[in-house]
Design goal:
By secondary structure, this protein is α/β, with parallel strands linked by helices. The protein is built from 14 helices and twelve strands. Strand 4, helix 5 and strand 5 form a beta-alpha-beta unit. The longest helix is centred in the middle third of the chain and has 27 residues.
Length: 425
């Protein structure tokens, strides 16, 4: 069967939720009747959401699809400050579970028509009377549209217990809103052919509920929750890597520090091996370096770091590396037992990414102190770089993704099963 909607109807329903999330930026979202987790897999890329939960009665389906919600390699290589926690539960939407209280958005996409009418009433009590989210999105088939669907006889799916007209759906939604302290607006997706929209409405009708002021679900007292049974079974949980995790932050920061110090060390070696009749001026060396270095995206930072380091001296067993040219004499960078000492203050000031990750000099020192990959001076004020190590291999065009850093701080339903008549929609 050729699709009769472009984009496909299920994609339009999901896009409606995604657009809502972009506009309203809810931090905690739960999808009731999440089925194959299709909507969750799209929402996980919208980092407005910090907690993403799916519930479905079909545990086998959840177990089959849950790994599609796992972080991808890029999430580990380029962690951001965004936080995302995902959970999947097996359970019935007609049962209370205290773990689902206090959410900002609840979605129920093509779910309620799979429930008996008594269960719809229980579903209303659970969502609006117990969970009390700030906003709710519910979609369901519009039976008035059915005559326009090719080859359809009866309900759109064999498991549907009912399919409401627009008047029936709106009557239920208004009653629920009045009873539980919400207001509701109606819309839909899947427009009718030209000239028939007013007569039959949308193929999928949607109600968007907003909790009224004065009934603040965020101020729910959870004292009674201790007596509530945990009705759902947790099948899957994962925390996405985030720079709010100190271990991840330290790993990314150390990687960035090592990258810049190794680049600096290699540049020092290049300068030392140059044969010149006169002493080399730091600034001139940086400016007159090879074309590859000048064209590097990190060349400016290295130049600045070299200039700053040229003003510092190591304390013991000093051996002059670079002198000065012309009248007078600048301070020079010195060797200390074949180690070069790079003050953390210079590193922090000269490398924007290091300063952005660490926040301040004290935090930089603290994060580096306990890491075995870096060596600090006795007073912790400088980074010691061993010049006896092998030169870095030629890197070609360096992609900063290798350092594990992304510039994030410029300061990252069983019922949802598709209807029988639209397997290709």
């Amino acid at each position: 069967m050729e699709p009769i909607f472009t984009p496909a109807l299920h994609k339009q329903r999901h896009q409606f939720v995604i657009d809502f999330v972009k506009r309203n930026r809810p931090r905690k979202v739960v999808d009731l009747g999440c089925g194959e987790c299709s909507l969750l897999k799209k929402l996980k890329f919208h980092r407005e959401v910090e907690v993403l939960v799916g519930v479905d009665i079909d545990g086998a389906k959840l177990k089959k699809c849950m790994h599609g919600l796992a972080p991808i390699p890029t999430d580990y290589l380029q962690p951001t400050y965004d936080q995302l926690h995902i959970e999947l539960y097996q359970g019935s939407v007609t049962q209370n579970d205290p773990r689902l209280r206090g959410f900002h958005l609840v979605t129920s996409i093509e779910l309620i028509e799979h429930l008996t009418l008594p269960d719809v009433e229980r579903f209303s009590e659970v969502v609006f009377g117990y969970m009390i989210p700030a906003e709710v999105i519910i979609s369901t088939p519009n039976s008035e549209y059915n005559p326009l669907l090719p080859g359809l006889r009866g309900f759109r799916h064999s498991d549907h217990k009912f399919e409401w007209t627009r008047a029936e759906f709106q009557s239920w939604a208004v009653k629920v809103s009045s009873e539980y302290g919400y207001e509701v607006e109606f819309t839909g997706v899947g427009e009718a052919p030209p000239g028939q929209q007013e007569r039959v409405g949308y193929c999928s009708q949607i109600a968007v509920f907003h909790r009224l002021r004065g009934r603040d679900g965020c101020n729910i007292l959870f004292a009674d929750d201790a007596e509530d049974l945990l009705s759902y079974t947790l099948l899957y949980t994962v925390n996405y890597p985030s720079l709010h995790d100190n271990n991840i932050l330290r790993r990314v920061l150390v990687s960035e520090v090592i990258y810049w110090t190794e680049k600096l060390k290699r540049r020092w070696r290049e300068v030392r091996t140059e044969e010149r009749d006169e002493s080399i001026v730091w600034c001139q060396t940086a400016a007159e370096g090879d074309e590859c270095f000048r064209s590097s995206e990190c060349g400016a930072e290295i130049n600045r770091l070299m200039e700053h380091c040229g003003r510092y001296m190591a304390e013991n067993q000093e051996e002059e590396v670079f002198g000065t040219k012309g009248q007078g004499k600048q301070e020079s960078c010195r060797l200390q037992s074949r180690c070069v000492s790079i003050p953390l203050a210079v590193l922090w000031t000269s490398c924007p990414k290091v300063s952005a990750l660490s926040g301040n000099l004290s935090n930089l020192r603290h994060l580096l102190t306990t890491d075995p990959e870096v060596k600090l001076s006795q007073d912790g004020s400088s980074l010691l770089v061993d010049l006896q190590e092998q030169d870095l291999e030629e890197e070609g065009d360096h992609d900063l993704e290798d350092s594990g850093y992304t510039e994030v701080s410029q300061c990252s339903y069983s019922a949802a099963q598709e209807e029988d008549w639209e397997p290709n929609v």
